[in-house]
Write a structure and sequence with these properties.
about 1000 residues; mainly alpha; three-stranded antiparallel β-sheet; PCI_dom; initiation factor
Length: about 1000
Amino acid sequence: MAPYAKPETSLKRAEELLSLSPPKEKEALDALAEVFVSKRFKSTPITALEPVIIRFLELCVSMRKGKIAKEGLAAYRNVAQSTNVPSVENVIKRFLSAAEAKVAEAQESAASLLSTKDDSSAEEPEADLDAPLEPSTLLMMSVDAQKDRTDRQIVLPALRFYWECLRISLEVLRNSARLEIIYQQIVQRAFAFCIQHTRKTEFRRLCEIIRKDLATVHKYSHQQNTINLSEPDILARFLEIRFQQLNSAVDLELWQEAFRSVEDIQGLLVNPASKKALKPAMMINYYEKLTKVFKSEGGSMAVFHAAAWGRYQMFAERGAASAKEGQSGLSEEDAKKNVGFVLLSALAVPVTEDGEGKRHATKLVNLLNLPKMPTRAGLLKDALDRNILARTAPDLAKLYTLLEQDFHPLTICSTTAPIIQSLASSPDYAQYAAPIQHVVISRLFQQLSQVYDSVSMAHVLSLVSAFSMDEDALEKFIMAACKRAELAVRLDHVQKSILFLDEPFTMASSKVGSGPAAFTSNALIVDSKAGLLQPSTADLVRTQLSRLASVLHSTVQFLDPSIAVKAKEAQRELFAKAVAQAEAEQAAFSARRALVARRKELMDELSVRRATEEAAAKAEKARVAAIELKKKEEEDYKKMQRERIQQEVDQVRIDEARKLAESLKLRGGLKVDADKIDNMDTDGLVQLQVEQLEKEKREMAERLRIIGKRTDHIERAFRKEEIPLVHADYERQQADDLAAHQLLQQQTRDHAKAVHEEAVGLKNRLARILGDYQIVKSDIQKRQAGLFEERRKASGIKIAEEKEKLRARVLAERAERKRRAEEEDKKRAADEAAAAAAEERRQEDEARAAEEEKVRLEIEGRKQEAEEKARAAQREAREKQRQADAELVKAQMQREEEAMTRRNAAKASPAGAPPAPSSGAWKRPGAGSSSPSASSSPAPTGERRRLQLSSRSVPLASESSPAAAPASVVAPAAPLIPAVAMAAAATAASSPAAPTEDGFKEVPVRGQKWTRGVSKWANK
């Protein structure tokens, strides 16, 4: 461990490292980190540690070392939270301010980069204005994503690190009563970050972090120094954070997260201390956000949306009444607008709910703090009780009268249409236009069903014409109303009419009429508020028993008033008894709850202590066992490695010896006992192979000497027979060339004379029409000159216009090209930095791998050396000699057959008779084959006649044998005649020669001297 250094010394050392050029940030960070790992860290004064931790965190922010910053913050918190909480707060704020400054710096850098590109693009010379636009330039001009790319490369990394710093701060500060206020401030800062940069994903994660921290508070509430939610001040701060979370979710339009935030608030409101901690302004904000949450859910939540507006208005009125005069938070216009929201939201609730919003009715009712499920009729009654109708706008009051009080089925649509249109044009009330229109149509059919038994579809369409509803939409609305049991109708498509059903015994048990518009026990009177004129027969049958019971109850109370008095006294006594019993039960319950809580605390403490001791003992035992096991495994592994390496070395030696022995057996002449192979080393086998190769080389040299001597005599005889034939062919070719030249000259003169005579005749014929041609030509030129002048002027005007357009486009092109160049420079710099980092990592990996490779190379060294020797021996001795000799014999046999054929042909032809001339058969050098035959035309003067001879080099082995492979280059200069094959046939199988890379055959050294002499003689 490094010697202890004082915090002041470490800080000074870090500043010195940072003042170097370039600054050594990593070394400075390591110097500061030594303070936190020291044993004296906990006893160091906070005043000395605070500058160190601040500088440490600044370096972490500069280098984006989030994990290291978290460790340092946690260590400092453990030391300072019990004695100096403001110091922890200052350090956290400085940490976040540094990260936020990096974000602002990145944003400014991105903005300056964009502006620099724009300025530099505007300063380009105007020499390119007339240049044509390229297709790539047009494509880049059509799409401008420069800002997004710049933000992704510069701003986004800074934002990510700032978010990481916020998470680190929350994790360090959570679940501590001393740091609870700082925790709330950091949460508010995180909310502001999410809203400012529209980070929806981070906002969801932040909400999850807060929920987990709250669950941890509830779980460990019995421990010391934990947050106590029973205190009103602490609960008020928690509620404030949840309300701010709700506001942020609404601002970000995250409705699901907003609903979960409402549930979090409701979970805190059940705490008894919430009555003191809750402020009226919080509840007003709470219900205002609930209106937006339920509004986002659509029509299924319309009744809860209206209930939220009702609760909002109630708390707003209470707040205005309790406030001092002149301090009301709402102006008269805003109050009137809110009253309109209350009335319109209640009117927009469907006349009959379809039950979609009642699946979670209990939870939603609890969120609204309502005693029961809200209904449309109840919401309207509550609005009337609070005198909402008198305070709202006249149009809205008239709309309420038309929908809930008047009975005018033939004019209800036409009278409400202007009001609905005004609502649709209002930015505040436009959301209620479509739901209220559906309510109007529902009222229309309810009122029509009270007056008519049937009505034509055309008549209904005329009534709803103010809403621009066609027949399909109307039929769809009727079917939906029947499904909700709001109407009992039947559509007659043949008669194009709507039939209203009123069958008492078939409909009494159905759901029709069971909605809010159904009659109660006093339904015999006219209920104008429900839009009903008289009860139907089905309603009378369905409500007969309830009406009879109501009438009998009223009659009994009228005949004997004492019954009502006794019932009230019994009810009063029952209430008093219930209150007394409830108080006793409450006291017993409180005592039992306190006892259970205390027992639970004791059991938890005991279980935690026991679990801690068991875990420590188990961890120590596991650590000792792991150390012993690791030591044993290392020893076993080393032993196995040594044995494996020795076995591999022995096996490689035996394998190489066997391979060499097999190769020597295949070459023949060397016999090795298989039993002695295992005891013989590689050097001994190589020595045997070298001796065998020397013996074969001597035998091959002797055979080639004999073959070369015979070849010399045969070639000399061929040349003597060739000389007279060459002279005769040359004389014949000269005569043929002279005759051909004279014939060509005569043909050229005849053709030129014929062409001249034909041209003179054509001139004499065309001279007669020359005058007419000149007149027509002059007229055409005059007309074309005028037309050309007109087109030239029009083209000049068009070119000027196109130049102006092109100038504007090229200006934009310059800007885009400059922006693209800047982006490429920036990307190149980033790539170079990444490449430098990758190169550094690669060098480290190579240095680490070099040590491992060194060990591996020592193990495989002997094996590779043996393999190299075997491959060299195979390449230079065995394969080269065997393949080359085999191909040499094969090639010489083919040459012998060709030479015999030419010799027989020469003997068969007469010696003195010259060969017949061939017309045009002879070609000059370079025009045809490089070796013309003996029967071709004579050569030009100065050249001797050439015979058709085979190539002076042996063909490449691969041309006749695909299995042959090139070896070293040793080529004979003179051709080998066919007679050589008879002398070399006996040794072909045992000593073949390998082909070289350029197609020649390798021969022994003793034969090369003779073949060079033959080559000189042949070239003469």
